[in-house]
Design a protein that fits this description.
single chain; alpha/beta; four-stranded mixed beta sheet; two-stranded parallel ribbon
Amino acid sequence: MTTAFRAALAFVLLAGFYVLVGLIVAAAVFFDVLLIVDFHANALKAAIVLTVAAGALVRALIMVSRRGGGELPGVPVTREHEPALWQTVEDLAQRVRTAPPDEIRLVPEVNAAVSEDTRFLGLKATRRRMYIGLPLLQTLTVDEMRAVLGHELGHYSGAHTRLGAPVYRGRVSLIATVQGLGDHPFFQRLFTLYAKLYMRVSQAVSRRQELEADQFAVTIGGRKAMAEALRKIHNAALAWNLYASGYLSMTGAGGYRPASVFGGFHALMSDDARQAELARLSEQPEETSPYDSHPSLAERLAAIELLPEPQHVPDPRSALMLLRDPNVAVQAVEQSMWTPEALTGLRAVSWEELVAHGMYAARNAEALHDLAVAGQQVMGATRPYLDAAFEAIARGQQAALEDRLRERGWNPSETLLSGVLGQALEAVLIRHGQARWTLSWAGPARLLFDDGEEVALSEYAAQVAANPSAVAGLREWLGDLGVRHDYVPEEASAGV
């Protein structure tokens, strides 16, 4: 089945979706009119079901039509700001015989993309945009970046973006329709089946278009550059996901944000141990689906190897060379990542400080507070002294402590008390300046004493939780660290 035939079929299915909606609305109107002319109980039931379903359909489509494009991501760069980048894009556009974009935007994503505003179901283009991910400029060479840009411009040359606008709109409409029919199981199943058929056909078109765009990329940069670019992008996407979940997710802890987002990503990508981990992850087999918008990496690499090798002069310099001043571009894109509230309300700090605060907030703060409150409740103390929890353990009240911890949202487990106790003791060390969470780009953050020894309290906490007689030794150890018996966590300094 050719790409053109699949594309035509996708448009037919999209039209069929609106026809199906129209039929249901028409059926609802028919039965409503029938009730007015000649009332029947059976017609009443059908009219109610169809009218409610038609209302849900129309409401879903109205909501989709009212969705604005929203604020565009990233930072626009003009020819005056980035002449080398624009010149490169315009030269490549000439080579693939298409018009260059009207706008280039640098975005904080491991991706490059193009879009095209269209009218008349994609028959007329109005404005073209190209999005270039700053992490790609950090990761790729000039050679590889040119190949990637050639791939994206190839979408213009093949009119892929013009097809993409209505097809994408159809996907959004179908998904919204299915979600809006949650109270109508029969109609929801009907439109779910239709949506799956539409997605299979339209995504097959998208996958074929990606392979066609790869041909333009090879013409621009050669097989080696494009293949290496795809491998690097695959690895960089894995790294960015890891970076976002393990590091950027700490943003907001204690009122802080990272002062250098892309500097941190560069540090992670430069770490040898992390690179080895990413290499292992990239070797794992890819999961594929008929609903994927892109072919698998293996499929794309295999197709590239079959293409002719063009004459090409390699350029192994960093793609950042395409920017007039990378530091200025980095700062501008980082600013675009934050809301005005985050820029004014969160203090920009080093990654070392952010990790120290973020790990404490995620692992220790709640454990310390909740253990003290649980101890207060079990022992009937006037205030949430941490020592009240120790006293409850000393008196064999572990079960009561665990009950209070579960009431505060902790998940029940065999190690509930020992786990919370261990995290609370870590918090005490941190608050009293004895230990600190330490940044590592090679793996998870580590809690270290001042002399560099790693804090390991899980076994000790388990011994104390299981043995009331061990509480005396715990109190003595904490006393040597300067922790008073009347220590109340909420009154401790917030600094970590």
